[in-house]
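Q: Got a minute? One more chain.
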Amino acid sequence: MSYANVGKVWVPETFGEYLSKIKRPAWCKYITIHHTAAPSLAQRPKGFTAQHIVNIKNYYSGKLGWSRGPHLFTDEDQIFGMTPLTSTGIHAKSFNSNSIGIEVLGNYDVEDPKSGRGLECWKTAAACTEELANWLGITPSESTIKFHRDDPRTSKSCPGTKVSKSWFLSLVNEGYTPKPQIEVEFVNVVDYLTKVKGMPYNDVVKKLSTKRGLAYFGDIWLENTYYNRHEKATYASKEELDILASDNTPSFTPYGDYDQ
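A: Always. Here it is, folded:
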């Protein structure tokens, strides 16, 4: 059950509602902030998908042998679950037993947290932190919001040398401004991948499948899909298919900037 929140995705506007429905953990006194480092913003140009979180979970459990991981991952739009918030996770040696761990997409030793996508990722993390603090009954401060590098048992710069705690706390305290909703463009999966992206028809048809009511392309879960019974065709988010077509083989090992 320690990866039971994999597949759960929220926007900041719905995260607080989710928190109100689960039991507040007595063991949690702090919130610990990390950056993923790898993947960086450049390596995830469209942010996370739920499948990316599944891939990271598989790395933690299969490669590292961990029974759990960090609690949450944030990008410029969404909050992704991994370890349940009611259970302790693995993310920082000294803080695993008493804090919830959030991984912010990006490498902020190198990438800019104060403009563009970097800033949007940190705004999402700040909104997530604000909701968690309200739920836990703690006041966000230098002592209650930990950075990974605050851990005396690590030499990490995490969550990045370009991020100061005073700056992050200012984001938390100024509150979250909801983003305008973006309409999703749906396209015929087979037609789009073959005619627009140039994939072989037989390969596309072979990889497209349904498992437990969810649409998959190979081992990749297509999050935004529906089946058109009249056309007998599957439709999916054009943006998601663009990511799938350009991101078949990651050029890095996903790890997150953590300590066991």
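A: The helical segments are 12-19, 50-63, 116-136, 165-174, 189-196, 201-207, 238-246.
Q: Perfect, thanks.
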